[in-house]
Design goal:
alpha/beta; 60s Ribosomal Protein L30, Chain: A; Alpha/beta knot; 2 domains; seven-stranded parallel sheet; four-stranded mixed sheet; 11 strands
């Protein structure tokens, strides 16, 4: 592949660094996808590739094959040295493949729902790794989407991509500026809404999740769920704690709730 060679100070390389460090505005909503597994996913899902950076010096045979496929899809492609790759890579043993890809956008009115739909609302989520793990969990249980309100971290943060195992590319994420807007959308689409809370709540296994579409709402680990969610008709659930701690990590709590609802909906 006869590609133009660029170095560390080139604008595209600097863009990669700014996204890796989460240190600058990212209006194009670009993510850094690195390595064979990430490029396999990008190619399989048809995710738009903004920029492809290729380092054949460190690449194995499989990487050369993926590079040829990526080159056909990328808007712009460049060659970089092993030294430059080492400066921008977040892997111990990079395999020569690094791309900037576009984060898919999801629109509330375009989401296809059915009678067994299952969604998760994360309000005021602050930790990128937790957000990524939530997205990975949503994929694992076949949930329809993640809804974000009062978002405190970027979806393009590199820890979100890694913690989600790239599922940020496949799990729809809807963003609402205000909890009231998300609540209105859920009600308009006939969801039964459950707040994960420990006060005045019922055991999560005491509910029948097969009757309606189901939405669970979780808040930040520091501040909990905002008061706007405590509206008429919204129910509260808790996961019993049998040891000394009084709560689960938000990602684990989400997994417990989501898989219970999915098991009931599919009759496991």
């Amino acid at each position: 592949m006869n590609l133009p060679q660029i170095g560390l100070h080139h604008a595209q390389v600097q863009r990669v660094l700014s996204i890796q460090k989460n240190s600058a505005p990212n209006p194009l909503r670009l993510l850094v996808a690195e390595g064979l597994w990430a490029h396999d996913l990008v190619l399989r899902t048809g995710t738009p590739i903004h920029t492809f950076l290729w380092c054949p010096e460190v690449a194995g045979e499989d990487a050369h094959w993926r590079a040829a496929q990526t080159l056909e899809r990328a808007h712009a492609s460049y060659r970089i040295s092993a030294k430059t790759l080492a400066r921008i890579s977040e892997r111990d043993k990079p395999d020569g493949l690094l791309s900037l890809v576009e984060l898919p956008a999801a629109e509330p009115d375009q989401l296809e729902l059915d009678d067994a739909s299952l969604v998760l609302v994360a309000d005021s989520m602050e930790i990128p790794g937790n957000l990524g793990t939530l997205i990975r969990t949503l994929d694992a249980c076949g949930a329809d989407c993640l809804i974000l309100t009062n978002r405190r971290t970027r979806l393009t943060h590199p820890k979100v991509f890694r913690a989600s195992q790239g599922m940020i590319l496949t799990v729809p994420v809807l963003e609402f500026e205000l909890p009231a807007d998300a609540l209105a959308w859920l009600r308009r689409n006939r969801f039964e809404i459950f707040l994960a809370d420990t006060q005045d709540a019922q055991n999560y296994r005491s509910f029948d999740y097969t009757k309606k579409r189901t939405a669970f709402v979780l808040g930040s680990e520091k501040y909990g769920i905002p008061r706007e969610w405590y509206a008429e008709g919204v129910q509260r659930v808790f996961v019993p704690m049998l040891g000394s701690v009084d709560s689960l990590n938000v990602s684990i709590a989400a997994a417990v709730l989501l898989f219970e609802a999915r098991a009931q909906k599919q009759g496991w």
